[in-house]
Amino acid sequence: MKEQRIRILKLVEDGKLSADEALSLIEALDRDEQLKEEKITALSTEVIDYNHEDNAKQPHEKQSSLGTKLMDWVDTAVKRVKELDLDLNFGKSIDIHHIFQFQGASFHDIDINFPNGSVNIQPWTEQDIRVECDAKVYRAENMEQARQSFLSEVECTLEGNRLILHSDKKTMKINVVLYVPEQAYDQIKIKLFNGPIRGEDLNVDTIKAKTANGVLSFSSINGKHGEFETANGQIKLSNSKYEKVEVESITGIIQFNGSAEKIDAQSFNGNLQLTLADMACEALYAKTTTGNIEINIPEESKVIGEFKSNLGALSAQLKDIDISLEKNETIQKELRFRTAKETKLSMFADSKTGSILTKNM
After folding, report:
1. How far apart are CA 131 and CA 60, in angstroms?
2. Where is the DUF4097 domain (predicted)?
């Protein structure tokens, strides 16, 4: 945000922007900054401060300070550009390796939720479920105490048609590789506070992956609905097919390469790189405050589009393009276009200070 304000003030200094125009633009950036903070707070509603696991405070006291605590934490994480180092908070850890195995299980849902670690989902040709856990247990005196803490605090079970892997333990980091049968799944939900989430070659109706700090990376996913959200980290979706996909980051690039009927991609200060592998898409919405947007579409796409930016350049390099509006004012740029009278794809992109480009592949 500081760089954007300096850029705006430089335009005023050069006589390209009036004081009123600069004030209006800075206020718009401030509003987006406020929305960013609210979003980060919302992402943390189930997170309790690491240093107060004793629950000594009253519930209303925890709730009132939660947003501020998480904002401080995310700011630190962004500056480090790496995962939160639990060693700095809790000191020495003891390593535990444990495998949960379920033979010939019948299930269609996966539900994973724990604070720290990583998740990697890998289909295999076996009919068994194999959950490989490499854990770092903090605040344990010895190996036996660490193992007992792991087994008592980590729930891994089959409940009806659902595989559950849960833990609320903050003083534990669990790196999980989950091997599941190659089959169709109804729903996969994964939520971490700190750590990356990965998966590949999955056939699932609904997939939801959320982390406050970490990369989300999925490839070769065939699904109806996908939701991917991170406060601090890259989101990469490749070679996948969805009916509807929603992708959101606060800080971090978003990359999508695949097929979807509806795409909603939003970031605060990350770039958006969206590539449509075919002409299935009917609606594409892309928005970022300070990042750039690049949209690649097939040459034969029949598209109607609208781009908006305050300071960034707008460009549509498409076959048979007809531009109906091109506004290039100092703090208000707009571009409207279409490539056919009867269109299938409706495209909207907005960036406060970044550039927007669409082109044929």
Report:
1. 37
2. 108-330
Pairwise CA distance, residues 87 & 126, whole Å: 37
Does the residue 283 lie in any domain? no
Higher-confidence residue: 4 or 130? 130
pLDDT digits (tens, 9 = 90+) for 2-23: 666 666 666 666 666 676 666 7
Q: What six digits make up the tokens of 116?
A: 């720290």
Domain presence at residue 30: yes
For residue 24, being part of any structural domain is answered with: yes
CA dihedral angle for residue 275, residue 277, residue 283, residue 288, rounded to 10 degrees? -10
Rg (CA), the chain: 23
Number of domains within the chain: 1
Return d(Cα 73, Cα 68) in angstroms, integer. 9
31 within domain boundaries: yes
| DSSP assignments along 269-281, one per residue | SS-EEEEESSS--
**pLDDT (0 to 100) of residue 55:** 41
Task: Answer whether 110's CB lies under 8 Å from 162's CB.
Answer: yes
Q: Using one digit for the tens of pLDDT, what is the confidence trace for 88-97?
A: 566 789 999 9
Model pLDDT, residue 52: 39
